[in-house]
Amino acid sequence: MANHQNAGNAGLYNATGGLNGMPSAGHYSDMQTLMQNMETLSGWLQQNREDFLSVQEGLEQVERRNARYPTGLPSLPAVNGEASGQSAADPSAPTITSLQRSLDAANNRIAAYEKANEEHNRLQAAYEDTLTEATERIRNYVFQQNDYITSIHKHYTHLLQESRAETVQAQQIHQDWQRGLSKLNEELRRAVRAREDEKLPFTRKISALKEENRVLRGLAGWEPAQDDDSEDEELEAMSVAEGRGRNLKERERVVGNAMGPQSGK
């Protein structure tokens, strides 16, 4: 009987995996393990009921024999199976000692089964409590992780929006600078063309004077005059000095118009 109890306990421990060897978290695996434990306990309870019924049948047989052979009658079988007075009893009939021994063994088995059942119930309650606590902790952990991931996504989205806004602003500033530089380049080109247009009358006048000088020298029989670069430079300096005031004002106006939008930003 002790071996049977130990085997039952070992079967329960193998089925439940112990408190420290709890199966992996998951509703399906937890319910499957719980159903296996319930089936094991149901089998042991059914076996206990059958043993209890067999013990009751044995007690009923003893009671019937005691009722058939009251105490003190010579026909009651003795302990050693011999007749106490008249003829010998049926040798196949159980004696009081054997029946008492069977009754004690059955009572011991019932007590052992009840103790094992209590231990199994305690282990099952501990397993259910541990499973409930683990499930609650896992649920809280998953909820916290979801909140953390959501906050990370929100922060990343916020940073991405800020980066996009900064990029758009930088592109806008670059476009403004490009427009300003294009306008400045165009104004400078206009100033250069205006400078060339201002120099053109003086250049034509100088060419006409040189031609007139050459003709007069030819009529007078003189040698043609050599071109002097210094004279050209003096004439050019005079023309530059004449238009310097107008050019300076024009350039100031061009630069002011080109840089005006940038300073406004």
TrEMBL record:
It comes from the Eukaryota. Keywords: Coiled coil. Residues 225-236 have a biased composition (Acidic residues). Residues 243-254 have a biased composition (Basic and acidic residues). Residues 221-265 are annotated as: Disordered. Residues 96-137 form a coiled coil. This is Uncharacterized protein. It comes from Cladosporium halotolerans.
